[in-house]
Amino acid sequence: RSNQSSDRHFITLMYERKEEMSFLSFSVLCVLFLIFQYSHVSFSSSSAVPQCHPDERSALLQFRNSLSIATSDSLQYLCSSFASISPWNKSSDCCMWSEVMCDRVTGHVIGLNLFCSGLQGTISSNSSLFLLRHLQFLSLSGNDFRGSSILPEFGQFKNMTELDLSAANFSGYVPLEISHLSKLVSLQLIEFNEQNIKIKVSAATFQALARNLTNLRELQLSNIDMSSLSSISFLNMSSSLTSLYLVSTKLRAELPENVFRLPRLQALELDANEELTGLFPNSNWSSALRVLDLSYTGFSIDLPHSLKNARSLSELSLSYCNFVGSHPTILSNLTPQIVSLNLAGNKFSGQIPWSSLNLKRVISLDFSFNNFTGQLPDVNSASRQSFSLFNASKYLLDRVPLSLTTLSLSHNFLSGKIPSWIYEIPYLQELDLGNNFFTGNVEIEKLSNLKELSTLDLSSNNLSLSFNNSINYTFDKLWELRLSSCSLSEFPHFFKSSKGLRTLDLSRNQIQGNVPKWLWEVGQNSLFQLNLSHNFFTYIEPLPWKELSILDLSFNLFSGPLPILSSPGLQVLLGSKNQFGGQIPTSFCNMSSLQVLDLSYNNLGGKVPQCLGNFSEYLTVLDLRRNRLHGTLPTTCAKGNSLRSLNLNDNRLEGPLPRSLAHCRSLEVLDLGNNLLNDTFPNWLESLPELRILVLRSNKFHGTIGNPRIKFSFPQLRIMDLSYNEFNGALPTKYFESFQAMMNAERVRMKYMGERYYQDSVLVTMKGLNVELVKIQTILTTIDLSSNNFTGKIPEVIEKLKSLKGLNFSHNMLNGTIPFTLGKLTNLEWLDLSSNELVGLIPSQLTDLPWIAFLNLSQNHLVGPIPQGKQFNTFSNDSFNDNLDLCGFPLSKMCNEDTDEQNSPSSTLEQKDDSDEANGFTWKVVALGYGCGFVFGISMGYFTFFSNGKASWILKWL
């Protein structure tokens, strides 16, 4: 009997997921569906129609009743058009249920399709599901099994040919028993949450799958952990394989060449495995290979000439693989079957070999994010007989890629004018020429001839746009428009007809005045991203877009209250560098999806809403610096939050730090400088595993810092700024000993802190100047404890902080000598020990600092000759002024022979007895004098400290 409901369901399943499959896998599913359909038709024509077996119906009912049915928000992207499973009851024939397929002869349940059925709960080893022994097809995809293990019992289905456990919230290791399914043709285990991979495949299990599943044609394992696999794991792959998808599986092996030679392999997709390496075979490629995707892998060097042996190749993606080549003429060896070519994000340079490319059938071409130079070829489009993309005198019209739908050349060094043939490609949908050096005028009227155009990016060139705002241009299918840095002085109207617009970027232009009201009707039910930053806008009305996710209004002249937002799904809100005033509205507390909130550099007043500590579990960035906020910090910071960066610098906040900040386990940046906070040192933050930047400067923090409470405190800290406070006591020696990230200079990779829509920045005192670093390199490591009341000696343990770039202990009451071990900080670029009570000689070892560009030792009690040579010869008087008895360059006071000898490398603190004693002077006497002075100083310091309750003076910069 034909089951039409089941047919429709299965067809919809395949249609919805075909974008995830290659043409081949989609075809395989279609063939399998036709087989099932044929069996149903044959069954319906039979005079004897077997019904569902009672024990199997009971097993189905028991399985469904063991689970709840509800819609999962996390699966809406996959299951938006599917309802829950149809009613099942014990009085009906289970073969008639829309999710069930039965054998046309025996009546046994052979297929169970529960794709996106809203099932929730766990599956146990005694689940009645495993009583359906005759199952050949099982799909549990698109449900929520609450982290259940993929049980060994799944290996009991001896007749199973198709098994799909994708996007079902399973966890743990794939059991070895899956390899017992010897008849398996298709195995799909795809997870869509790239941030939280829960499923793992061991090397032993994968090798068993490769060895035992000899009938396997399609293997899809994506977004799961396969990091334990080695090259050996791939040596015995089934020769029947037609599709192999191992996308984002943490592969770290070297892929053996035999994988490219599997005789029936048509699709090989291994993208998003950055540590996967390998070489292409020189010969004997699989003659069937049509799709090859190695994007975001470790394949590199140059494109091999052997690619020409892949004669059936039609889709090739090698994006972001670090391939190089000054003139990739190998592209001319690609087969004429190529319809999609993606070489984005590599290091190709030179001119694109247009004349050698065979683009007769190409549909998609992406050369973006490379180093290509030169111009796009141009011809006289008026002469259609000689019209050719490459060379009008040599090539005919049929060489023009009239089938082209995607042309992406962004982020290169291409120049010249945009040729006229671009406007005449009839099916062009995506045109991305941004971030090049194109010049000339772009006529919007010509662009409007591209009726299929959906994406247009002309950003960051030297182009001017020509349009008439009184003309109604037609861009009905446009959904992404990027015109950043296009010298626009007025708001363009030509996209008024783009009702389905999803992305609009008009940033970095010179547009003035109000944001026009007609914009509210564009993309009213679709606008996802709006970027109006870096213009001169002054007013914007309440925003109507329900689907808006990213809004950037920064660097404008907006004033008055913050705009009212209607989008419950807003994820990124950037409004910095404006003149917004008033208070932060409490309506922000309803933005439960917000990830980045940056309202810095405005005139916002009032208190920080208490809800900002826990209103969104997804919030990663909260930047409210340079406003007029007052009161205390929010006292509640929810456990399990995602906060990565918290910046409230330069407000009027007061009171103690809330202890709930210790819940922010993902926190990397904590900048609370330039406020009125009054507390002791927050040593309870030392266990935060990711904290990289701690800025508490210019507050009222006080007391001693003390010792760590754990073995490895602040393990990732790179920037520590406690300057301009009232800390006292000794320098925190024990903390210095635990700053692991400041010790490993060689292991730090240079990159910038931040994320896609937000870059962390911080104000640091660098080389005597206050500098705002708008991008923070992870290699920057500094300690600034200046302008406090620290006493005692500079600890020698600082020599372990090998990666330090800057060290500032100035304006304290430190005594003793300058440790010669500071000369071991070979990455140091600035050192400020000024305005202390340091004594003795300047260690000659400081001349060994190869990168030192700023040195300030002024206003101490230093004596003797200034070391000479290397970087020390570049410092001025300001580095040494106001000391007790320094001499030598650059000071005007010259040193005598005795003082020169005193500072020789072999006798920094030990002097030659004969010359010194001849003058009635010995360093023993000096040491005795310093010793007496030290005892007297300690005694007086003790008396002064405990009689006044604090140090008697503090020098503070205002």
From TrEMBL:
This protein's record includes keyword Transmembrane helix: yes
Protein name, UniProt field: LRR domain containing protein
Sorted UniProt keywords: Cell membrane, Glycoprotein, Leucine-rich repeat, Membrane, Receptor, Repeat, Signal, Transmembrane, Transmembrane helix
Leucine-rich repeat-containing N-terminal plant-type domain span: 53-103
One Pfam family of this chain: LRR_8
InterPro entries reported for this sequence: Leu-rich_rpt (IPR001611), Leu-rich_rpt_typical-subtyp (IPR003591), LRR_dom_sf (IPR032675), LRR_N_plant-typ (IPR013210), RLP23-like (IPR046956)
Transmembrane segments: 21-39, 921-946
Membrane topology: Single-pass type I membrane protein
GO cellular component: plasma membrane
Predominant location: membrane
